[in-house]
Amino acid sequence: MLKIDGLVLTVADPDTGQETEILHGSTLALAQGEALGLVGESGSGKSMTLKCILGIEPAGARVEGSIALDGTDLLTASGEQLRRIRANDLALIAQNPHGALNPVLTVGRFLIEGMSDARSLDRGEAQRRAAALLAEVGIEDTDRVLRSYPHQLSGGMLQRVVIAGAISGEPKLLLADEPTTALDVTTQAEVVAILDEKRREHGLSMIFVTHDLDLAAAVCDRLAVMKDGAILEIGTPDEIRDQPKTDYTRALMAARPMLYPEGGSGGTPEPDGTVSAEEAGA
Ligand SMILES: Nc1ncnc2c1ncn2[C@@H]1O[C@H](COP(=O)(O)OP(=O)(O)OP(=O)(O)O)[C@@H](O)[C@H]1O
Question: Is the confidence metric ipTM above 0.90 for this complex?
């Protein structure tokens, strides 16, 4: 359903005009209902890949190659086609849920406005549907949460609300960009479990961006390992674990020794869980 071919992203320095190539020809494909983890250290190009899919790359950037969603190339689609695709087919779950919600609207309004048929629903029906969405993502006191403004809720609760909103539109593709990094550790596990469960239930495809190879392995069918704007290898979690093709991948695994006890030779994790390139032997 998604086919990225030879994706090259070049940005120009706004002052000097000097160009830097950030993505060097990424190629990957995603099947309907499949979850793909984009994994790599900070700065490897994971978020930029998502931005290219969403068409929100930095101002002045040049994108080459193709990004086809069910046959429509997002890089050459018309403005109207893109608007429709972004509204109906793509949903972003970003690191910070506060950025996804309008601070002056209640959670109820946020969810109701996101319903494609919101205008034809009477108030009671819209409220009931919004409450059902919250219940789906494990929120119990739905009335209170629907009446709440974003600042009155915890990050974990808000990220559940964002997930509820994302799945309610039945998008073709969920784009999750480090969706739990900003949450505390206990909440992280709960939110990832909800995302994983709901995505599978609804049969949605997903690209899951993280620097945490273990986490990606737990929720994704395949992993693509990124470094310096290039995809080094793609495989199932088992393939990546059992036959890593690069020292860099081995080092990413070694950064999480608990689940990958035989995870290779090099690479001390930085405090944020990333691995330096030198230590990775790259
Ligand atoms: N607005 C921008 N203009 C120019 N270059 C940028 C911009 N944002 C990021 N970059 C560069 O693009 C490269 C890839 O960054 P990207 O944010 O995609 O990495 P990432 O793998 O998502 O890292 P992180 O895990 O820290 O989010 C980096 O070298 C970064 O410095």
Answer: yes
Q: How far apart are CA 193 and CA 210, in angstroms?
A: 15
What's the start-to-end Cα distance of the chain, in Å? Answer: 33
Distance 111 CA to ligand 1 centre (A): 31
Q: Which atom of ligand 1 is nearest to the CA of 38?
A: 21
Query: Is any ligand 1 atom within 6 A of the Cβ of residue 227?
Result: no
Pocket lining: 35 vs ligand 1, CB cutoff 6 Å: no
Q: Where are the alpha helices (DSSP H) in the chain?
A: 46-54, 79-88, 107-113, 123-136, 142-147, 155-168, 185-202, 213-219, 237-242, 247-254
Find out whether 150 and 158 touch, Cβ atoms under 8 Å. Answer: yes
Q: Which of 83-97, 172-186, 187-201, 250-264 has the lowest mean pLDDT?
A: 250-264
- The SS3 of residue 137 is coil
**Dist. CA 181–CA 240, nearest whole Å:** 23
CA of 200 from ligand 1 middle (Å) equals 30
Q: Which atom of ligand 1 is nearest to the CA of 211?
A: 25
**pTM as predicted:** 0.87
Tens digits of per-residue pLDDT, 241-270?
999 999 999 999 887 644 444 443 333 333
DSSP strand pairing (62-69 vs 2-12): antiparallel
Going from the C-alpha of 153 to that of each of 93, 106, 178, the distances in angstroms are 17, 11, 20
Q: Confirm or reject: Cβ of 23 under 6 Å from ligand 1.
A: no
Read off the tokens for 4.
Answer: 């990225």
